[in-house]
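step: validate -> pass
step: tokenize input -> pass
step: predict -> running
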Amino acid sequence: MKKFNLKADKREVFGRKVKSLRRLGTLPATVYGKNIQSVSLSVNTDEFLKIYQEAGETGLVELLVAGKTKTEAVARPVLIHTVQEDPVSEEILHIEFHQVDLKEKVHANIPLEFVGMAPAVEQKLGVLLTVLNEVEAEALPAELPEKIIVDITTLAELNQELKVSDLKIPSSVTVLTDRGLTVVKIG
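step: predict -> pass
step: emit ->
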């Protein structure tokens, strides 16, 4: 699993004044977690977008929070929990980071990536119906997969389906989604 590093600064601007941060190319953010006090931060917009595109919500990010001096900088292992967007412009408004304990399991929704072409679709016997796009799982933060690959090349007949139990999931990950649920089906 690739390691991601993101620099952050403590934020002194709050409320409606955070618009000025966004104009300067930084995003308001908050980091919170179990047994820690929440901290308001700001991160560079371009750096965050690059990391978010690669890490998603399951990639472990090392958030380097700057202190007053270089020796006071604190590295926090976090997951990107929530990215709040403007519903019209889709501009990112705020980010929430969840600080995790690397020795304690966390729950996360892991996206599914469908690969291959179903023979039933190629032969025009039916259409591919995607029922689930992600599964809920539990694992140590460093062992969370960024995505789960679903090979659909075995779907050759009408009404054939793949269930959660058919997914190839690393042994270090526990799936919390009902294993009997359909992931994808030929309809």
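step: describe -> The helical segments are 18-23, 45-55, 119-122.
step: cleanup -> pass
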